[in-house]
Design brief:
Blueprint: H1 5-18, E1 24-25, E2 28-34, H2 37-43, E3 49-56, H3 61-64, E4 72-76, E5 79-80, H4 84-89, E6 99-106, E7 109-116, E8 118-119
Antiparallel strand pairs: 1-8, 2-3, 3-4, 4-5, 4-6, 6-7
């Protein structure tokens, strides 16, 4: 598996400029859960799995955006998410400090929230 030259260039620039590669961060813990088929149909959701918010960092990006424990994240920037790896893949260094559109289910209703992506804290910094 090859790494695209554009990715290598971007990461090298990040290392030279900042001394580390920034990682996007929402300050939230998730647990995957299967969505009931009736809810998927009634809300017109693309995926069958969502991510239940089980932990929020106080004053973290997700908490500041208004996410609550028990909300279910179903998309980020229109892309269905099934696990935390899916979310992390959508939060590259170019997203830090910028808002992303997230679709959540709260109390059976689909809603959109804008979350400004934070920078994941670096160990030992």
């Amino acid at each position: 598996m090859a790494i695209p030259a554009s990715t290598v260039t971007r990461l090298a620039e990040e290392l030279i400029t900042r001394g580390h590669v920034r990682r996007g961060y929402l300050g939230v813990g998730f647990h995957p859960a299967r969505l009931p088929a009736t809810l998927v149909r009634s809300l017109g959701i693309a995926g069958e799995v969502g991510l239940v918010v089980v932990n929020l960092q106080p004053d973290g990006p997700a908490a500041r955006a208004g996410l609550l424990l028990g909300d279910m994240l179903v998309t980020v920037e229109g892309t269905p998410v099934r696990d935390s790896g899916d979310v992390q893949a959508l939060l590259g260094p170019e997203r830090v400090g910028r808002p992303v559109r997230a679709s959540i289910i709260r109390a059976g209703t689909l809603a959109e929230v804008m979350i400004t992506v934070g920078e994941r804290p670096q160990p030992g910094r």
